[in-house]
Amino acid sequence: MVNKVKENKKRFFYPPEFFKMFEYLNRNGKFTAKFGMNTGGRIAELRGFKKNPLFDSQRCNIVLTKTKVRAKLGEYKPEPRTLPVGAKYFKELKRDIRTHRVLSTNAYNIQLKRACLKAKINRPEDFSSHNIRKTFATWMLSLGIAPGKVADHLGHTEKVLKKDYATNDAFNDADKDMMIKFWGDLPKRLMPYRGLY
After folding, report:
1. Dihedrals φ, ψ of 175, to 5°?
2. Residues with Cβ < 8 Å from 71, sequence gap 6 or more?
3. Virtual torsion, Cα 4, 9, 32, 83, nearest 10 deg
4. How far apart are CA 121 and CA 35, in angstroms?
5. Are 184 and 87 in contact (CB under 8 A)?
6. Domains in the chain, ordered, with CATH?
7. Per-residue pLDDT tens for 44-72?
8. Within 10 Å of residue 17's Cβ, how many Cβ atoms?
9. C-alpha span between 83 and 80 (Å, rounded)
10. pLDDT single digits (tens) 68-124
11. Separation CA 97–CA 150 (nearest Å)
């Protein structure tokens, strides 16, 4: 019996790594990666959205109806999550949801590892679909988004976020510029409103 090396659940992509890896994904791999990086959603949640897409065009929000039960919080039935996405990505998702598919977790993990190998990213075996969620959270926290907002977006509590996701700021200004360019107005949408009432 061969011992499999477990993925490093703490590993995240630095922006140059992510964009280099992204180039080597096929069309549906790119669609899945971009969907995950814009929502922080799990593969099962993204696949559930594809079957029943719910768009709030007025607010550029999407609704994930197939979510994970948080048993520690006493949930017996998963609660839908309404997520803001960037305005540019919202239009792209509405267009592409009809013609692209979200890969299964298995197919996506295989493709992700192959893309990491081709991109010469250190320890490609450390990456799986979970690391896309980790990358989403790490990038958002590094841009100053409140942990509570990031936790809500992921469908977690702040306690889980701090235990399993939070990472010290490891990015330079060029990295942060790449994140903002990728997400457009999404980080600004997740910032608390500071206007006058």
Report:
1. -60, -45
2. none
3. 150
4. 21
5. yes
6. 15-186 (1.10.443.10)
7. 999 999 998 999 999 999 999 888 755 45
8. 17
9. 10
10. 755 455 556 778 899 999 999 999 999 999 999 999 999 999 999 999 999 999 999
11. 24
Q: How many residues does the chain have?
A: 197
Residue type, 119: A
Per residue in 9-50, pLDDT (tens digit) is 678 999 999 999 999 999 999 999 999 999 999 999 999 999
Closest CA to 99 of 44, 138, 53: 53
pTM assigned to the model: 0.88
Supply the pLDDT for residue 70: 58
Exposure string over 116-147, b if 16+ CB within 10 A, otherwise e: beebebeebebbbbbbbbbbbbbbbbbbebeb
The closest alpha carbon to 10, from 109, 113, 131, belongs to 131
What distances in angstroms separate CA 89 from CA 61, 115, 126, 183, 186, one per listed residue?
A: 11, 23, 28, 8, 9
At 75 the pLDDT is 55
